[in-house]
Amino acid sequence: MSNMVHKPLRRSSLALHRMNSRMKSSSSSTPSTSSRGSSSASTASSSEAAFEDVRSYIKSGGEFTKELLLILQERSDAEAAYAKSLSKLSGRLLRATRDHGQASSSVNNAWHFIGEDMETTAEVHRSLASVLSEECVKPLKSFAEAQHRSRKSLESSVDKRARAHGDSRNYEAKAKSKSYSVCRDNERVQDVALDCKLGRGKNLSEKELSKLHLKRKKAEEATRKCDAEYYTSCLKAERSR
């Protein structure tokens, strides 16, 4: 009678102990895991947003530089075209005063001076066009091209690291899922082995017990291996940030 009374109590107390321990472990591990996951996700999203802000700011600066370069180039071309036209008109006026005017006439001399002044003005605009081209347009163009190459190289490097980080996170998620599945299988095998050890459930032959023992060892080994892979994947994912 004593055996019939105490055996169910022992079984129920053992089951209650298991349930309590699992509830404690799940309650203690779940907040930390979720908090780490949410913290990591929020950090990654904020870093990505910050990089996109920097990328947008630099791209806007590059577009402004391009527009400024075009404006200065057009100004230089306009100055050169104006100088060419003014020099052409100056030549026509000087030829007119020389070929058709009277050399001793004050009016003719006045127009001759106007023609020379037009040539001087044309030379000023020609020099301005050259200065704009040599000292503004060409250096600014070289600067813009260098900045574009540097920006593209940096963006390519960041995008490559981002893809690698994403791959690491995906591998981490797969390793976590696999580790959870293997742990569940290991728990089921351990429960069956414990039931056999305590004399619960159906009686197994020696051959079946040997198979169960081998299965339990394989489950334990698989659990250790998956836990190690999950730990390694977590480290790689954090180091890739």
From TrEMBL:
Region span, Disordered: 1-45, 151-173
InterPro entries: AH/BAR_dom_sf, F_BAR_dom, FCH_dom
Main location: cytoplasm
Chain intervals with Low complexity compositional bias: 25-45
Any GO CC annotation of this UniProt entry: organelle
Domain F-BAR: 39-241
Pfam families: FCH
Keyword Chaperone: no
Keyword annotations from UniProtKB, A to Z: Coiled coil, Cytoplasm, Cytoskeleton, Phosphoprotein
Subcellular location: Cytoplasm, Cytoskeleton
PANTHER family from the UniProt entry: NOSTRIN, ISOFORM H, PROLINE-SERINE-THREONINE PHOSPHATASE INTERACTING PROTEIN 1
Protein name, as recorded: F-BAR domain-containing protein
